Structure formats: structure tokens, C-alpha cells
Batch of 2 targets.
Target 1
Amino acid sequence: MKITTLSKKHIVTGHILRWCVIFLVLLYLLRAHYGANPWSLESVSHQALSSMEIPKASITSIVDSGQGIRMVLLVDRNHAMIHHFFISRPFGILWQSRGGGYGMPIDPKVLIDFRGGMSTFGHYRHYYYIGQVNDPRITTIKVTWQDGYEQNATLTEGVYHVARSVRISDDDQSQTTKTRLLVYDKEGVQLYNLTPEQREVRTL
Amino acid sequence: MRKKAITLLRFSEWTLLILFIGFAVLISLPFSDMFNIDKDIRQAKSEGVYFDADMHFQTYFDKSVRLDGVVYNQKEIIVYMTGKQLGPYGKLPNKILVTTDSGATFESLGGGNTTNAFRSRGYFHFKEVPPGIKSITVHNEAYSESFSFNIALQGGDPS
């Protein structure tokens, strides 16, 4: 087939047109699936909170849970609430909320507390612990997981969180009573030892 | 060789186009095998228990919501609403409140909706409401966001 100059122009126009439409429809699909501005973690967090009818709060800290999953912690001092949720990175560049807990109240009478949960993503269980810290002496928080592994929690602005993933086939859930939260001051003196039976320390 | 490459490119372009457009159409079509809201509304209208609303949108937590109408048969209330938001999250409020002209407030017990990529049409129901309600305010508030719609439940032509 002989390609004349005119039909060459038509061929190129055809390609350009098709790619334009593909791009526009892709934007629509991305928006419908991941929400507005999914490349911005701020935007994704805001939408996750909005869907729970909770006002916008800024991100306090993020911890890595493994397997490409992270946990975001948001503290809203104006409304005295803490929110947390897991996020993943689709295509390596977008952010997607994978669920969590919202609206946990901040209670200034609680010196330290020890709450946790778990989410399953694929072949891994992602465990987390989260709590408030209102004793100004506290500088280090160390968590002991049910298999004995010890890890420092990330403490920022009066809240801490820590997350860890365990392969389901390696996970022994019968040992969850053995988890511990050890809390130290800046000299290394142990201040508190929290367990699943005693999950918080309050001022009187 | 170059012609083969161009043909392959053209084939991929058409394939992507058909797949993407097909998927976009699928998620945009209104489809429900669980609810037939129009049928329910027609039925209510024929019984004279459906009341139309003003049909304007208000913003509530990044969603545009609107009161479509209310069914009130002196025993129960069903509130029909439409919500709009292009994104993966719910487009209707999680729950709503109804306050009657005599000041009583009721919380929605549940509801249902059919949703596509950008629009959700659904209902919220309230059981055991008193008879003789003349008008209600459909509303909810959380932190600094709120919405509020007034609708008369008496007089006026329900059809």
C-alpha cells in the first residue's frame, strides 16, 4: 500500500486522537477508583476522613508496616480526636486508603494507653498499636509483639503508633496475651509496663 | 518492520480504547437489581403518600446531596435522596435526622442506595413516627458541616 503525504497525516492524526481519548478516559477511571488527586497523600487522607463525616486533620506521622503498606496517624487537637488508617501505593505513585479507625477521643486524663488492631492484606497480617501519651516524662516507647520481637514505636506530639506485618503462615495468634508496652523516660528508667489486661494508666 | 510496529501500535491503541471506554461506561451506567426506586415512588404517588421536594443541592463533607421526596403514610417515613461525588466513597450521608414541625427528632434506622461512579440514589427509613405531621426538616450536622431541607407533608398535590 502506497502511503501518500495526505494519508500519512491522517494516520498520525488517528494516533494522536486515540491517545488523547485513552488519556482522558484513564483520568476518569483513576478519579472514579482512587478519588481526587490520588498522587497527594493529603488529598487522599482528607477524602478518607470526609467519607467518615469527620473534619480534615493534618498528618502527624507515618510508619512503615512492610509489604508496601504504611500506617498514617492523624491528630486533631481542635476536636480532640485521633484517626489512623493503612495506606498502600498503587502503581508506586498513587496513594490509597485501606481502612482504619476514626474518631478515637483524646483524653488528657490518660497518661498512656495501649490499643491495637490488625488488618489483613494479601498473605500478611498487619498488626498495629496506637495510643496517647500525656505524661511529659515519656521519651521512649518499646512494644513487644506476640512472637517476642521488640520494636520502638514512633512517638510524635503526644501520640505513638507502631505497625508490623507478619506472614499469615508464620503467625501464632495464641500468644497475643504476651504483648507488652514498656515506657521509659530520657534516662532509661522504666515508667510503665502495659499489657492486654491493663491497657491504660490514668491520672487520679 | 516499521509497518509491523505501526500496526501493532494501532492494534494496542484500539484495544486500550475499547477496554477503557467499555469499563468507563460500565461504572457509569445506573444499574440495580436490588432496588427499583422509580417504581416505589410511582407506587407511593398512586397511593397519595409521596411528597415532592424543592430539588436543590447542598454540600455536606465534599458530597452534593439533595432531597428528592418523602413518603409518609402516617406510620412510617421514607426519605429519598440523591448524592453526587466522583470518587470511590459513599455519596449519601451515613445517616440522617428528621425533625417534625412539633419538634420531635428521629434518627434514620437504615436505608439503601444504588450507586455508580458519580451518583447515588437512595432512601433512609424511619419507623413508628406519629401521625399528623405537617412538615419535616431533613438534616444532619457534624462538626462544622451540615445540610438541611424542609418539606411539607400535608396539603399540596402529592402527585
Target 2
Amino acid sequence: MFRYGHELAAHCAQTGKTIAEVAIEEEMQNSECSRELVFAKLARRRAVMEKACRATLKQPVPSVSGLTGGDASLLNSFLQQGAPLLGGPTAKAVAYALSCFEVNTSMGAIVACPTAGSCGIVPGALFAVAEQLGASDEQLLKAFAAASYVGMIIARNATVSGAEGGCQAECGSAAAMAAAALVELRGGDAEMCLSAAAIAIKNVMGLVCDPVAGLVEIPCAKRNASGVVNAILCSDLAMAGIKSQIPFDEVVSAMRKVGRLLPESLRETAKGGVATTPTGLRMKKQVFGE
Amino acid sequence: MDSSSTSLFDILGPIMIGPSSSHTAGALRIGRAAGMLCTAPVVKAVFRLHGSFASTYKGHGSDRALAAGVLGMQTDDPDIKNALEICRQRGIEVKFTEADLGEVHPNTVQVELTDAGGIRHVLTGCSVGGGAVRIIGIDGFDTGITGEYPTIVTKHHDKVGVIKNVVSCISDAEVNIVTINLARSQKGKLATAIIETDTLVDGDVVEKIGQLEHMVDVLTMDKF
């Protein structure tokens, strides 16, 4: 496995392979399984994610706490009316991400990607863009493999845990994974993929993890929404030929260091940020009654 | 997942019941690891929650997830949300307390289980993100188990040849060893071997290891 992005990009440039191809070959080696089995595992996850991305678009479902729910269907209706300013597949991608997230908060089945708190970003972006591009099933599954590989590199060199690194490590990593996969799906090379990923992380560098009442709910759902837009934006930037001035590996390293500098109160402990606003505290009382 | 992550599906996964990969799925996996140490049904479970686990366990359903793990559920089991009720129905006493477990990962829990035979096991695990876990201690010994492989844990008197005999038992069963880690409390006193294997050893192999000279106890855990 390539420990760093620059090694991966150099290998891809040298061999003409895509990130997805490298990812699938390594998976076959490490897990000692066939190409078919890797694709079958990808397809199984794709099926769970696809169901979650559509589940609450028309049917609002409340979260277990009762604090949230129904946002995916609101955005979907707004989209049907043709009102969003977000063009192309972007508003649809956000609606998918919200739906996926609402399935999570209602204790339904999702795929952590890289975590449950950021589970809407990668599938939301990939499904909507793949539909728009008319991508084949194989192309879509490969995009998920590429996203995952970029996530592995981030996890190796930093963290994808909100408790360790704040929301930048969860929604930031998810946006980076999605951005890279979108660039690959759109025919960009590995260097461009990593540029998109680097920009996505920079855009949310330092983002804190401050869940109201300790629930993976507020503000997580909307950060999944903005994470999708971040990913799509960064894929456009990279496809336009815009490079990240700071290389991907250095951005990931900076993200790890920033995560360590964040006080414990802003790392998934519900002791700061919006969690301790008067409304956040009132909601906590509403859920736990103390 | 941490630096030991070697599969795409550590990142793209697990398929799980929400809402939190670290606090729900990861917690469940720690509970399941602990549950596998008991050979008789569990009658009492005490969970000592540290750091972020202590502050937010109720909101993330970590309590239900830990109990679901002890019951042997998988991370995508729709019954996770009913785990505390299921424990009550089965007469399993479940207790959650907040604790300072020292310089450990922010999401750490110590699980103490007592089985119907009165045998007690204590396992400490960290949920390191995305549903990945690291078991850092079992019954007073330091470990570093990620659940990627089936594991054999021995407790034995620290004597010459014990490890050789344990390894012989495993290789005689044609099971391949991935890693061996040894630790001891004090020279000549009790020691432990944590052995990861490619496949889970059969019960008769475990029994054979258990009957070796100087062996005090042997436990096995499948992948979790």
C-alpha cells in the first residue's frame, strides 16, 4: 500500500493506472480474493448506500431523538420545483446526502464512509454525479474504490475520528475522498484527484466536532450537506486545471496537527461549539431530561 | 481505522446501524470481543466508560451497542436498539459507570464480564474511528488486538518451553500463525501470549493447549 499520496500519484503516472485500479489490485492481494469478490463487496455496500440515499427523499423519518428529520424531503421538493441555485447534479447530491444521514440518525442501515457521522457525503456526491454522467455500474463501483483508497491514506497519516481530530477529520476526509473519486469518474488523473482532495480538506481545516447533546445529528447533517458541495466544488476546480498550492500529503499532515491542537471540548465531547449554545443545551435537556 | 488498516472496506464500511461508527459500531465490536472471552453465558456486565465515551454514550447509543456486542450481535443487526431490553429479559445485569482509565484513546471502555460459572474477564478496548477498534488489555495484560485475525490468548507460568509447546499445538493443527506477542508480569511469574492466526483453532486444540504443563488458562477470540 502506498503510504503517501505523492507515491500513489507517481505510480499512477508511471503505469497509467487509475487510483481505483491500484486500490482494487491491492485489495485482491491483501485480502487474497478475486477481482469478482472485490466488486461484489463494493456492490453490496453500494446497494445499502443507494437505498439510504433515497429512503427519506419523499417520506420524512424522524431521528431517534426526535430532534431532526424531514430535511431531505424538503430539499427534494424544492428541487422538484426547480428552485435551487445549486446547478447540475449538486442539489440532488445534497438531497441524497441528507437522506442517507437521516437513515443513520433513525438507527437504520448505512455504510460508514469513512464514518457514520460523515456517511452521506461520498454516496451523495457519487450517485448524483454518476447519474448525471450516465456512468456505468463498473465506473461507479471503481469510484467508490478510489474514494476509499484516498480515505486509507488519510487514515494512515492523520485520522478520520472526530474524537481525535474534530469534524475536519470526518466530514473533511469524506469530502476529500468524494472530491478525488469525482475527478477520477470525470477522467482526471491521480495528481488532479489528490489536488481536489487537498483543497477539500483545506476548505474545512480546523472544523470542530460539536454535536448537540452528544448526538451525531446537529450540526452533522448539514455538514454532510456542505461536505457534498465542497467535494463537487473541488472536483470542478481540479478539472479546470487548478492545483492545490499545498500538496495533498502536507495538507493531511497539517490536518493531523490541527486535530491535536483542538481542545477536548471541541472533539466530539459535546462540551463546546454549538453543543453548548443555549439552544443546544435546551435540546440536550429535551432529549435526556436533565 | 488506524495505521493497521489494510482493506478498502475498513474505510468503506462497516455496513452498520447508526448513528456513530466509533460510538455505536466500534463500541459494539469491543463488547463482542469481550463476550467472546466467556465460555459460559454472561450474567453480569460492567462497562467503565472513559473520555468521549463517558460524555456521550447515551446520545450515541453506545450503551445499547456495547450490550449488543456482549450478546454477540453484528454491527448491522436491527436489534441493537433493543439490546438493553434483551439483556433484562435474559437476566443479565448491566451497569455503566464513568471512569478515568488514564492516558488512553478518548474513546475507551473497560468491560468486566462475569459468566454463569463465576469466571470473570476484564477487557479494555479503544474505538479508534470508523468502527475500527484496538483491544489494549485483557485480564491485566497489555494487548494490541484489532480483531482482524482470530486470536489465542494464553495465561501461563513464565517457564522455558511453554511457548514452544503452544506453537506446536497450533502448527500441528495446520493453523498458520500471523503474530505472537509475549508479556509477563514479573520474571518467573505469570505471563501471557497473544497469538493471531489466519484461521480460528478448533476447540480440541484449545483443550490441548489448556492441558499443557504450566498453562493456567487459554482463551480464543474469533475475528470481530
